[in-house]
Amino acid sequence: MQLHQTSKGLRPHRDVVSFVRRGERLSTEQQEAWDALAEQYVLDPPRAHRDTLPAAGETLDVPALFGRTAPLVVEVGSGQGENLVAAALAHPERDFLGVEVYAPGLAQTLVRLQEAAGQDGADLPQNLRMLPLDAQRALPQMLPSASIDELWVYFADPWPKQRHHKRRLINPPFLDAVLPLLREGAAFRLATDWAQYAHHMRIQLDARPELELLFPQGPRPDGDSTDAVPETMAMTGWAPRFAGRVKTGFEAKGRRAGRLIWDLAYTRVAEPGTDDGTAGEGSA
Q1: Shortest CA distance to 129 belongs to which of 76, 183, 65, 67?
Q2: pTM higher than 0.85, yes or no?
Q3: Contact (Cβ atoms closer than 8 angstroms) between residue 4 and residue 10
Q4: Closest listed residue to residue 180, CA positions, set 52, 278, 72
Q5: Residues with active-site annotation
Q6: Which CATH number is 140's domain given?
Q7: Which domain holds residue 48?
Q8: Cα separation, 123 vs 230, whole angstroms
Q9: Which residues sit opposite 75 in a β-bridge?
Q10: pLDDT digit string (tens) for 85-139?
Q11: In which element (H, E) is residue 80 found?
């Protein structure tokens, strides 16, 4: 960890992160769901110097976690759990890991699980877990290479101001961290309601040799947008709406504001120069 000199001595250097910790207070309903289900669904690994970082050497044994070996879907920034819970219920043959740092979002996901399971709790899904850590820094330590079958990033904070662009999630440090975790052939699905961020994502993702567009001829979304669409925005390469992505509050807010929804989908490929056909360990 780097140290910076100040008038009061040395202090730890704060990493650039894509999130800001907001209010952690839970509603009565959320607290009741937390008390009933957090032990089962919310992982609580030992922490490092920050509570969003795992302790050194902490890893996840995914087969032991779910009691089986199955395709693993990871959603980074799972929010209030709309997608995560719907997908876990619709696809019992897959395992789902939501990575989310906000306690109210985790708690609201538990509320959704309770509502889906009914009063007796007999229908609680067993194929869902949540990790309350910083995805960029935790996942490469805790998951083995080529262990993720599908990665979702939906409606991440666009950080629209120029001085905040370094805080956007889809930037080289995050991609360097997570792309080695995708198995060859894995899908990487993203969506945003901000045209400028969609343009930024295309620049970052199209440049990665580990990724190929799933829909290279896919047209741009139809209609006009109330936010500025960059003149150099790609005309093709956009994905249709993924059938497994439910309409969340973030998407509804963007729609009400008159913004278009931009979907992207990539597949993980072997990097140039690999001899055995498997995904490379490094990044471009």
Answers
A1: 65
A2: yes
A3: yes
A4: 278
A5: 157
A6: 3.40.50.150
A7: 26-268
A8: 46
A9: 98, 152
A10: 999 999 999 999 999 999 999 999 999 999 988 766 678 999 999 999 999 999 9
A11: none
